[in-house]
Amino acid sequence: MTSRCILITGAGSGIGAGVAAELAAAGHHLVVTDLALPAAQAVVDGILAAGGSAEACVLDVTSDASVAAALAQASRPVEVLVNNAGLQHVAPLEEFPIEKWDFLVQVMLVGVARLTRAVLPGMRSRGFGRIVNIGSIHSLVASPYKSAYVAAKHGLVGFSKVMALETADTDITINTICPTYVKTPLVDRQIADQARTRGIPEADVVRDVMLKPMPKGVFIGFDELAGITAFLLTPHARNITGHTIEVDGGWTVQ
């Protein structure tokens, strides 16, 4: 596999950190970005200790200036962008602070457009680029109490389709990977939030809310998401663009 320079947003923990470590182990150079530099640097330190190549940058996906600064700081041109930064808030709409609702959309939809817009000129000039959006099962289906998250993740699919058409004239692809639950700190917080909102024990949230809709009945692993991302970087995937790739244990085939 050709080694690529891959920038991942929100990579100081969770999916971003796990995918960064897996892709670095496969021989790629990782630009690990996060709002918190110490978190990003800790991921980089782990990659370097394992013999990989990586660097850390502060990046706020809601800020044009921060995006420009991170891209200028990166030691190599960004060939692959993984839009992963995300957060969650669980509440009925009537109790959902509109400022929080707007912030989730700013991070997970507008931020994706901001990063994509920033890297596209360089990708076009080099004649190669891959953009991988980390969507969710909630890019395809809905759950109660997650209106902002579901709206943003649904919007991500539409955005990817438009960008696939706008980049069809060169070797750039954009796709959205849609996993069900991955065991991360974000999901751990969701378990607690869902238990409180629904008035049920946390074990029941895992069994009856998160895993029950999945015939496979297991959490998704970082290695699965990294493996799919790695495939999308190859020439074999050059005509896969604008698609949603469901990693859902059979959820949406029922």
TrEMBL record:
It comes from the Bacteria. Transmembrane segments: none annotated. InterPro entries: 3-OHbutyrate_DH, NAD(P)-bd_dom_sf, Sc_DH/Rdtase_CS, SDR, SDR_fam. Pfam families: adh_short (PF00106). NCBIfam families: PHB_DH, PRK12429.1. Belongs to the short-chain dehydrogenases/reductases (SDR) family. PANTHER family: 3-OXOACYL-(ACYL-CARRIER-PROTEIN) REDUCTASE (PTHR42879), 3-OXOACYL-[ACYL-CARRIER-PROTEIN] REDUCTASE FABG (PTHR42879:SF2). This is 3-hydroxybutyrate dehydrogenase.
